[in-house]
Design a protein that fits this description.
Helix content is 10%, strand content 3%. The protein has 260 residues and is low in regular secondary structure.
Amino acid sequence: MTVFERPFLRLAPAATAAALAVFGASTAVAASQIGFQDRDVSRVISISGSCVRCELSGRRLAGANFVGANFTQATLVGSDLRGANVVGSNFSETNLTRADLRGAELVGSRFSGAALVQARLDGVEARGADFSNADLSRANLSGAELLGARLRRARAVDANFAGAEMSAAELVYGDFSGADFEGAELNSARLTGGRFTRADFTDAELLRADLRGADLSQARGLTQSQINSACSDSSTRLPDGLTARSCGGGRGGAPRPVAP
C-alpha cells in the first residue's frame, strides 16, 4: 500500500498532487520520502486536501504543512503539531485537546468551535486566526502572536496569555475567568461584554482597548492608569477604587459598538 492509499488520512486527490509537486518525483520516490510510519508523518509532507472527521489522535505531525486543508471535526487529541505550518486551513470543531502546537504558524486559519483544552500554543503565530466559540480552557498561549485574532465567545478559563501580542484582537463576550494576561499587549483589543473574573492584567497594555460592558470587577493587577488609556463607560464593571473613562473624540474617535 502506498502512502497515498493509507486510510487514516483520507486525503482528497489534491493532497496527493500537492505532495508530488513538492518533490517533483514519481509516486514510489515520493512515498519513500514522505513515508508515514504507523504513527509518524514526515516533516516534509504538504497537505492541502480534506480530512473531515478523521481520527488522528496522538499522531506526530510536527513540521507538516497544511495549506488550504480542511480538517473540520477531525480528532487530534494529544497530537504533535509543533512547528507546523497551518495557513488558510479549516480546523473548525476539531478536537485538539492537549495537542502540542508550540511554535506553529496558524495565520488566517479557522479554529471556530474547536476544543483546545490544555493545548500547548505558546509562541504560535496566529495573526488573524479565528478561535470564535473555541474552548481554550487551561491552554497555554504565552508569548503567542494573536494580532487581530478572533476569540468571540471563546471559553478560555484559566488560559495563559502572558506576554502575548493581542493588539486588535476580539475577545467579545468570551469567558476569560482566571486567565493570565500579565505583560500582554491588548492595545485596541475588544473586550466588550467579556467575563474576566480573577483574570490577571498586571503590566498589560490596554491603550484604546474597548472595555465597554466587560466584567472586570474581580480582575487583578488593573490600575487606574490602564483604565485611563482604555475606553470604558457606565456598563464597564471595574474593581473597587477604579473609575471608568471614555476615550471618545480625538484621533479615530470612540470605538464602534460590537454586536453580540
